[in-house]
Amino acid sequence: MAGDGLEPGTDPGHNNWSIVFEKLDALVAQNKEIVTQNLEILARLSSQESKLNSALEDITYLTLASKDHSTELARQDIPISKLEEQVGEFSVKLEKQEAHSRKYNLEIHGIKQTQDECIPGMVLKLCSPLGLQVQNYELMAAHRYDKFRKER
């Protein structure tokens, strides 16, 4: 069998097979590494998927809650507009009543302020020389306005 190329170490194709097996072993090792990396990536993606699903559930819940609140606000908007209308009407009525009550008011200007003054007593003293018969019980209120107050 000498020279037929079947003896170990004498076959010219033997070296080629060993190179092929070495390359296959290297490819298998690379494939295992790629599979391991892919499994790690898949595990991270699975974790992220869980977080995304949880976030999606939260968003869905908040969206539904927001719609409920919007519906409730829309339902309450009608009474609020009616209340605003009533406030406007009451403001007009109050202004009319204040104007009516002011028609009997008397403002006196130019009297110096003194310490421990009695405003109702001053008013009564001013009325007497003018020939006005005013009694203390007829005064509903007597007071000084603040100098810088603009409303009167």
Report a brief summary of the structure.
The chain is mostly helical.
Derived structural class: mainly alpha
Query: In the residues, how many domains can be counted?
Result: 2
Number of helices: 2
Kindly estimate the percentage of residues that lie in beta strands according to DSSP. under 5%
Shape: rod-shaped
Q: Kindly state the mean pLDDT as a whole number?
A: 82
Supply Rg.
Answer: 51 Å
Distance between the termini: 135 Å
Poorly predicted runs of 5 or more residues: 1-6
Question: Can you summarize the main beta sheet?
Answer: none
The helical percent reads 55-70%
H/E element order: HH
Tally of strands: 0
Walk me through what this model shows.
There is one protein chain. With 152 residues, the protein is mainly alpha-helical. The chain folds into two domains: 14-105; 107-144, no CATH class. 64% of the residues lie in helices and 0% in strands. It is built from two helices and no strands. It has helices at residues 14-102, 119-127. The longest helix has 89 residues, at 14-102. The chain is rod-shaped and about 145 Å long. It starts with 13 loop residues before the first helix and ends in a 25-residue tail after the last helix. The model is unreliable at 1-6 (pLDDT under 50).
Features:
single chain, 152 residues, mainly alpha, rod-shaped, disordered N terminus
Please render the helix and strand layout as text:
Elements: H1 14-102, H2 119-127
